[in-house]
């Protein structure tokens, strides 16, 4: 993940994960990561 796009996606994931944790959805972050990884693999 060294492309500018991949770095941007990783940053957006961290922002989303922090938002979810802040708002009480910490269990959802693992599924979000899996969804992103599945999309990247395709």
Query: SSE order, as H and E?
Result: HH
Secondary structural class: mainly alpha
Termini separation = 14 Å
Helical content stands at over 70%
Shape summary: flat
**Largest sheet, described in full?**
none
Total helices: the number is 2
Furnish the topology, listing elements before pairings.
Layout: H1 4-22, H2 28-41
Offer a few descriptive terms.
0% strand, flat, mainly alpha, 42 residues, single chain
Give an overview in words.
By secondary structure, the chain is an all-alpha fold. It has two helices and no strands. It has helices at 4-22, 28-41. Helix 1 (4-22) packs antiparallel against helix 2 (28-41). It is flat. The two termini are 14 Å apart.
Give a summary of the structure in a few sentences.
This protein has 42 residues and is an all-alpha fold.
């Amino acid at each position: 993940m060294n492309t500018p796009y991949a770095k941007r996606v990783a940053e957006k994931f961290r922002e989303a994960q922090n938002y979810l944790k802040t708002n009480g959805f910490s269990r959802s972050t693992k599924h979000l990561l899996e969804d992103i990884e599945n999309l990247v693999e395709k």
